[in-house]
From TrEMBL:
Zn(2+) binds at residues 78, 235, 239. The lineage of its organism: Bacteria, Pseudomonadati, Pseudomonadota, Alphaproteobacteria, Rhodobacterales. GO terms for molecular function: acyltransferase activity; metal ion binding; UDP-3-O-acyl-N-acetylglucosamine deacetylase activity. The keyword Zinc applies. Its cofactor is Zn(2+). One of its GO terms (biological process) is lipid A biosynthetic process. The gene is lpxC. This is UDP-3-O-acyl-N-acetylglucosamine deacetylase. InterPro entries: Ribosomal_Su5_D2-typ_SF, UDP-acyl_GlcNac_deAcase, UDP-acyl_GlcNac_deAcase_C, UDP-acyl_N-AcGlcN_deAcase_N. Keywords: Acyltransferase, Hydrolase, Lipid A biosynthesis, Lipid biosynthesis, Lipid metabolism, Metal-binding, Transferase, Zinc.
Amino acid sequence: MQTTVQSTIRFAGIGLHTGAPVNMSICPAPADHGIVFERTDIRLGNRRIPALYDRAEQSPLCTLIVNDAGVSVSTIEHVMAALVGCGVHNALVQIDGPEVPVLDGSAAPFVRGILSVGVKRLTAPIRVIEVLSTVEVHTSQGWARLAPGPGLTMDFHIDFADRAIGRQSKSLDLANGTFVRELCDSRTFCRAADVEAMRAAGKALGGTMENAVVVDGDAVLSPGGLRHSDEAVRHKMLDALGDLALAGAPILGHYEGHKAGHTLTNMLLRELFATPDGYRVRDCDIALAARLPGAGVEAHEIPAVA
Ligand SMILES: [Zn+2]
């Protein structure tokens, strides 16, 4: 059965890119509502933005969605990953500014909030998107691929010049709470060399050494160092899970990303949904539901480090 959150969960913080203070609430929603953001600071007109792939606009540093009235919300990927990773299918996310709070730079605070109230079963069946044929997209930066598979599995590869990150690869089956145990506490990261350019472009204004892992060559500049030796690739997988959630339903398939990011994962979903024989939407039976990312998640599995 589909789920929502048991009760409203509130978060307050600053936006990673805007640096502006923001309040956000994850509120219960009915079956077949999906994940929808609502800009409560906007009084007139359509202030709701469905978290769907065809609402996403090109934005290399984060995932930004926009509605028909031009109302947007950005940096949705970590809270989206937390919702899908905890098995929440429906929620109204109310926010009083244009960017989701970054909190500690990972999805762990959102996961902790969701699991503290718990999920509520609704009376409609879960529908899933089953990948039927391989789709692949490329840019000059890298590539991403979705292939058929019995549940959501993921391979991710990154390669950075800074040796503090370097080459990292990871493979995970996202069934049975893997997201909460393995991915949710991994923080966003950036290269010290890129910080000035991002700031000059009006980005990363809320970035700190605490809410992002900053690396410079061999060195991790953030105090306390890394939460995992491969925290960077784990965070890229967290982002990919959040971006895949914009499919609007759980995906059954194998995702592979090679130096992929928000743009490539969104291109991949657009390619999938433009391929008529590439997927089918089906009801989810009990055996399948037990393999979805949110099945069997428990609060005590959040890594203690976060
Ligand atoms: Zn991220």
